[in-house]
Amino acid sequence: MARTLTAPEREHFLALPHVGVLSVAADDGRPPLTVPVWYAYTPGGNLHFFTGSQGRVARKTRLLQRSKALSFCVQQSEFPYKYVTVECTVVEENWTPSVEEVTAVTSRYLPPDLARAFAEAETAHPAGTFVLFTARPDRWLSFDFVDDAPASAGE
């Protein structure tokens, strides 16, 4: 039978380097904007992710500034399936993040030299379009199908 993750389990799962899916309320009657993002999270802390779009302010940046709230989801797409969704409040917008702050996110997804090069490139000449957001997790939803997994041979 599927079950809800405990608080430590869900926080540990969110802390793994999944690609997150961010959803933010849209404007003009459109459906919510839902996009994949790289992020960083430490259990018990806040969620950190960035937005930027080739020298222009990304739509998600404008929507996050307006709504100050988002939903965020990560999943394990192989059986046994597992997911964590968290509703968050935006608590900070950093329009001039440091190389170290950006590297804390990119190093989860890229080799060290590429992670740092990406961070240096994005922070070298701030164009006012690259934003590091910090969001506080407020409400959690999780599911783990681990109990539905067949026992392995020898058990």
Automatic annotation (TrEMBL):
Superkingdom to which the source organism belongs:
Bacteria
Keywords, sorted A to Z: Oxidoreductase
What GO molecular function annotation could you give as one example from this UniProt entry?
coenzyme F420 binding
InterPro entries attached to this UniProt entry: F420H2_bilvrd_red/Heme_oxyg, Split_barrel_FMN-bd
Q: Name one GO cellular component term.
A: cytosol
| PANTHER family tied to this protein | HEME OXYGENASE HI_0854-RELATED
Q: What is this protein called?
A: Pyridoxamine 5-phosphate oxidase
Organism encoding this protein: Microbispora hainanensis
